[in-house]
Amino acid sequence: MSVSSTRILLTICVLSLVLCLCQCQGRVLDPNSRIKAVNLGGWLVTEGWIKPTLFDGIVNKDFLDGTALQFKSVTTGKYLCAEQGGGSIIVANRTSASGWETFRVWRINATALNLRVFGKQFVGVDSNGNGIAAVSITPGNSDTFRIVRDSSDKNRVRIKASNGYYLQAKTEEVVTADSQGSNGWGDDDPSVFVMKTSGRLEGEFQVTNGYGPQAAPQVMREHWNSFIVEEDFKFISENGLNAVRIPVGWWIASDPTPPWPFVGGSLQALDNAFLWAEKYKLKVIIDLHAAPGSQNGWEHSASRDGSQEWGKTDENIHQTVDVIEFLTARYAKRPSLYAVELMNEPLSPGATLESVSKYYKAGYEAVRRHSSTAFVVMSNRLGPMDPRELFPLASAFSRTVIDLHYYNLFEDKFNNLTVQQNIDFIYNNRSSQLNHVTTSNGPLTFVGEWVAEWSVNGASKEDYQRFAKAQLQVWGTATFGWAYWTLRNVNNHWSLEWMIQNGYIKL
Ligand SMILES: *[C@@H]1O[C@H](CO)[C@@H](O)[C@H](O)[C@H]1NC(C)=O
Ligand SMILES: *[C@@H]1O[C@H](CO)[C@@H](O)[C@H](O)[C@H]1NC(C)=O
Ligand SMILES: *[C@@H]1O[C@H](CO)[C@@H](O)[C@H](O)[C@H]1NC(C)=O
Ligand SMILES: *[C@@H]1O[C@H](CO)[C@@H](O)[C@H](O)[C@H]1NC(C)=O
């Protein structure tokens, strides 16, 4: 081979290398700049299990919005049921309780509530009689109830209707609101029911409506000012982390006067987070954790009663885009703004691929109107989906990231795994799942939530250390990075602060 042909070959090699680098720009981040983040969960979007004491001051906190109640008649021995799931009468003839036999609370105040059935209608008293049916689409006066409990057995209740009378199961098929009640709570009284709580929500809707408009602003302000403080950002920066992922709720965009029942002030807290992030050189990922209407029906997306309404109308999608536009415009010039996550954990099939794609495209464009550099994070849907379903969309744009949440929890298949099986699952199953979505020409990958917790009972500190280490190794291959869920939590293993301070995790 002549000198000149070697030169030509060399030039071609260099050129193709440069070409490749250009092509890959924004795709494969320099491994040294990958995100090692912690989530600030339970701060600007309430989650009761993270900080249960936040709910302590609520009067009658057993009846928060979304509480799922079931009532067994002591005389028929059967459950109250919305016949057909709703749109019909209430009967007392079911031997077991599930969807149609479950009534979800809409709280009016500490004593008055509405009961919503499976089909989303509200239980109410017939206007020309005393029959009970679930037909109202929006609750009115005749759909208001009070639950009166037996002081010696709080699970024995009477249900008082708006006409001043109590519900009674006259027969299995006839339930009416015409009992005067009595002083006793005996098994022969058709107005007595055994109440069971089959589900609870403790999110932002529950805490703000639970305290009510008088007390909630003060309670929430105290929470925002104390749960996460500047010292935490110092701790984060001194312990091997370089970023925070901050969950926020859609109502932050209308601070200081968000729609009922939400209260203002979380925007000020987010402003503070940016100041502290700058001071301690941390990157910020803003994460829209709660979208209007709720994208998954869970408490952490501020669902009122477990229903999932996000994405059902164009108006709702536009409203969500406006929230992203507001947040990006506000923080685009801040050096710490690193990424905007358009929406956390949309749940399939309720959140359809069509609505999510439509929103992600518009949300991406909203971010780009204000920032050409912020990464745009798109959370994969949970539930039935193809893990690469967002690729066509995300690959068409620059600096996009797919967020994946990997927990060895929440699925039956993890229930009986041993310590070693859990660890093997990370090294084998999870790493191949992550590999499958980590490609050189697709979006970057982000394990935006994980935790060193599992369903193993009585695991040792060393077990936890090995489990955390395995995850850090595998998540280290995600091209955007990872974020632990969460910084602070009353459940120790879910608190990265506790895990670091107690030597379970070292970064
Ligand atoms: C609660 O709401 C009901 C129904 O609107 C009303 O009658 C009652 O006075 C309210 N109670 C309190 C304490 O505000
Ligand atoms: C309960 O009562 C309703 C109303 O009469 C009836 O249509 C339904 O079939 C009954 N269901 C059961 C399980 O008995
Ligand atoms: C876990 O073990 C329990 C008790 O041995 C068993 O009943 C259950 O079916 C197992 N679950 C799974 C998912 O294997
Ligand atoms: C992990 O992957 C292996 C090999 O594909 C499979 O046999 C096993 O069932 C998977 N484990 C779980 C818990 O899904």
Can you give me a brief rundown of this structure?
The chain has 507 residues and is of the alpha/beta class. The protein is built from 10 helices and 20 strands. It has 2 domains: 30-52 and 202-501, TIM Barrel; 67-199, Trefoil (Acidic Fibroblast Growth Factor, subunit A) (Trefoil), CATH 2.80.10.50.
Description:
GO terms for molecular function: actin filament binding; hydrolase activity, hydrolyzing O-glycosyl compounds. By secondary structure, this protein is of the alpha/beta class. It folds into 2 domains: 30-52 and 202-501, Glycosidases (TIM Barrel, Alpha-Beta Barrel); 67-199, Trefoil (Acidic Fibroblast Growth Factor, subunit A), CATH 2.80.10.50. The protein has helices spanning 3-24, 204-227, 230-238, 266-279, 314-331, 353-368, 391-395, 419-437, 461-475, 496-501; strands at 35-39, 68-73, 79-82, 90-94, 103-107, 113-116, 122-125, 132-136, 146-150, 153-160, 166-169, 175-179, 193-199, 243-249, 283-290, 337-341, 375-379, 400-405, 444-450, 481-484. Strands 1-14-15-16-17-18-19-20 form an 8-stranded parallel beta barrel. It has a 6-stranded antiparallel sheet with strand order 6-5-2-13-10-9, with no helix packed on it. The protein is elongated and about 75 Å long. Residues 13-26 have low confidence and may be disordered. The structure holds 2-acetamido-2-deoxy-beta-D-glucopyranose (4 copies). The site of one 2-acetamido-2-deoxy-beta-D-glucopyranose has 5 residues, from β4.
